[in-house]
Amino acid sequence: MAATIIDGKKIAETIQQELAEEIKQLQAEHHLTPGLAVVLVGENPASKVYVRNKNKACHDIGIYSEQHNLPQEASEQELLALIQQLNHDDKIHGILVQLPLPDHIDEHKVINTILPEKDVDGFHPVNIGKLMIGEKGFRPCTPFGVQKMLSYSGVPIDGAHVVVVGRSNIVGKPIANMLLQKQPDANATVTVCHSRTKDLAAITRQADILIAAIGQPEMITAEMVSENAVVIDVGVNRIEDPASKTGYRLVGDVKFDEVSQKCKAISPVPGGVGPMTITMLLYNTVESAKQSLER
């Protein structure tokens, strides 16, 4: 029997409608419009598409957004000065510097310069530390999106065995920490697997919830999952496809065609985690605006 499809696009639309209502309320009661500044350095085509999508999403729900473009050869100092300027701008509640950055700019220095209370990407060490100890802070958008997808889909997380394949700072480590917390939509038993894990399939088959975030096209096959598993595919990989107009197609880290015939529920690529990532960026920006009222 084919798996239930976890529709990230639909869940993202639901959350965005809720955010649009919150924004109307903030405007009516506090004359406050959440503001997001996006900084793009250089001409990376994928980054330009992401930024365009983020700006459109902001516009659609009523978030004020501004875009700052710096040339590829902009110095690290110029970028840090721009971030400091945005740190002190009261109409901006979230600052997002689109990654990757050119090689001559230190990514860590850039992330550390953003005020933690405006770090809506959730990458600042202060927010990562708060995540570790279960304190309120901004969660990285992709893992936060995964958690919301599970919650909105009614997947029981409390007491479940979650297996995360991948240990990146952007997805693997944060989602493992988030689902481990003694909090709602968490309380799971979490196993983290990676490239050095022995007998990976024996571990992934034990998962009630399997989260694939390893960056290897279609690596997770049907024999690696159980019939009762909920599979969340975080991977986005381009593979050559001569039949496609673009010459490539997008696939996840999971072999969708075969795994979807075996497991209980699965998120597709595209249309799964992707729309959730942008939505959680909007969510964090609205949260930051609400918190600014308390400061």
Proportion of residues in helical segments: 40-55%
- Domain unit count: 2
CATH architecture of the largest domain: 3-Layer(aba) Sandwich
Strand order of the largest sheet: 1-11-8-7-5-6
Structural class: alpha/beta
Secondary-structure element pattern, one letter each: EHEHEHEHHHEHEHEEEEHEH
Mean pLDDT: 95
Q: Per DSSP, what share of the residues sits in E-state strands of 2 or more residues? A: 15-25%
Largest sheet: 6 strands, parallel
Domain Tetrahydrofolate dehydrogenase/cyclohydrolase catalytic: 6-121
Family: Belongs to the tetrahydrofolate dehydrogenase/cyclohydrolase family.
Pfam family, one: THF_DHG_CYH
Subunit structure: Homodimer.
Short summary:
With 295 residues, this protein is of the alpha/beta class.
Structure keywords:
295 residues, alpha/beta, Rossmann fold, 2 domains, 6-stranded parallel sheet, 3-stranded parallel sheet
If you had to describe this structure to a student in words, what would you say it looks like?
By secondary structure, the protein is α/β, with parallel strands linked by helices. It folds into two domains: 31-116, 3-Layer(aba) Sandwich (Rossmann fold); 141-274, NAD(P)-binding Rossmann-like Domain (Rossmann fold, 3-Layer(aba) Sandwich). The chain contains ten helices and eleven strands. The protein has a six-stranded parallel beta sheet. It starts with a strand and ends with a helix. The relative contact order is 0.17. The mean pLDDT is 95.
